[in-house]
């Protein structure tokens, strides 16, 4: 997937400046478009060549001004008039330590200031001329293009910064990495603090160039090698919209995709039943309102739903306080009768407790007959059983509020700050935390993690794992993190981090990001949400794609392409490898959820099951063709 050229390399007039262009297009005023890029784009390098041919006077002084750069601004958004314009033919950059990002910083906050000030009191800011002043952080979306001696970044617009010499470019990146580390972790950038932050077993995360990437190179060799594909374009010629239905259960809040006959749109007033087909899901005209069943689900809109008992039942999770994830219980919805049959309460040792998330026992548990599921709270990980402790089914007709049985689990004293979790095919558990850590628990114990991956400085808001447990996908606000859990034990046997301690045999992760331009188009307040693998529930089957939502974007990566270390995205990169090759499905409204249907719904002319994209009032299904 991907495209043959990038909107980041657009035609630029060598004589047009930013001021001349502003009357034609503004980076803030242009609407996002589905138009294809120009057929014969030229890069910023082409513009530089033209500027050099003019023998401008400033060039003779370029090597004399410290930290000298050229600055370009992208204008026109994704319209046919998109282009880079010269913002400043010659300016300079400076890393400044300050306690504010206004224009009136105090003198003396120079980049060589040796004062060890905590990030809480001050932080590093990047200044470029008079146009850019931005806190050094992941939100800058800084992208390196080493072959062009260029970095792109976001700061109230999309900017390209060109360096005159390779050594200048490398000095900038070195200083940027130092400032980013200090702003993220609040300590000085040095080898000792890297060990404190990452741990001695994870130094490959701190120094990716020294990490063992063999696990990536050898990964899934049975997969067909994906074609050499360029950076992203908006035109999705291999994504075909098959169905689009209007929701009739109120505003859609979440999707509950089934592997059997039906899937479900969970709305704010009811649940709409839709039928699964090989080309997507389509409505059956059946909608059940919450007020028709026992209890009042409508008091708080369900935030999440999971299917159980061979997809004949659904558990609805509603927050106690709107906008907060925690809940004191669940509503059980009987799909066959179309009614909410009971309200369950979370309780341990006679005390009411809360949960922030629930999920199935394993990847395929929803199609099995079972009465247990997993629960997660800030400092709790447990298994709940809808049977009582003696194994008998509770008499729901006599119970005012039946109590779920705490069947297994652990209540941690403090500090774990769990946020999200997911399960493998065998029931092993991966948990993401507020501090960015990702912990792996075996299917036999919830007390102590077999492996704990360090955080990269941003909270994990959602996590998913492949059926075989070999790959983990974590979601943060500004990027996705893909981790390989495979390693060789001391006897040379291949294992995952769920089954044993990985020690120092750990490869560096890879990041999946939007380009600075797409990130800017997504909007300031739009964040990555709920990245997931495509859905398999059988040994020997392989996930083929990853999908996440950002505002009105549904973003799709080819899994094999991400794992391919020779892919062009990874050339000339510094630090953790970042993949920018993806497809985007653009909707007119903010996307609620994007998920792939069960792999059994893939047809012969498609490498993947249909993708389902839900907005508040509509749900669409897309098939992926085999077109190369």
UniProtKB/TrEMBL annotation:
Every DUF7135 domain range: 34-199
Superkingdom to which the source organism belongs: Eukaryota
Coiled-coil residue windows: none
GO cellular component, one term: nucleus
Bias kind Basic and acidic residues: ranges: 1-10
Composition-biased stretches (Acidic residues): 11-21
One of the Pfam families matching this protein, by short name: DUF7135
Annotated region described as Disordered, given as residue ranges: 1-45
InterPro entries according to UniProt: CYPRO4_DUF7135, Vid27, VID27_C, WD40/YVTN_repeat-like_dom_sf, WD40_repeat_dom_sf
Stored Gene3D superfamilies: YVTN repeat-like/Quinoprotein amine dehydrogenase (2.130.10.10)
SUPFAM superfamilies: WD40 repeat-like
Domain Vacuolar import/degradation Vid27 C-terminal span(s) in chain numbering: 300-571
Name assigned to this protein: Vacuolar import/degradation
Organism (species): Heracleum sosnowskyi
Organism lineage string: Eukaryota, Viridiplantae, Streptophyta, Embryophyta, Tracheophyta
